[in-house]
Amino acid sequence: MQDTVTDRIRTIVAAVLSLPEDEVTAEASAATLADWDSLATIKIVMAVEGEFGVEFNEEIIPRLLSIEALCRNLAAMAPQ
Fold this sequence. Notes:
Helices cover about 50% and strands about 0% of the residues. It is mainly alpha-helical. Helix 1 crosses helix 2 (about 40-50). It is globular. The chain starts with a helix and ends with a helix. The mean pLDDT is about 95.
């Protein structure tokens, strides 16, 4: 069962990029996945926003180019 934030984001990235989930590691990024381009970034961000019920500040979206960055910024949005 995939229940960690990282696993949920990996699932989203795999779905958006039409890749098998086992090819999308926690270290995956736009630099490591050929199909992760600017349009894919927008689709990934929108899917993550929908999955977690959040909205990223548009200024940080261009920096959300890895699963790690998505996780880190999502965690920063969590209520303290």
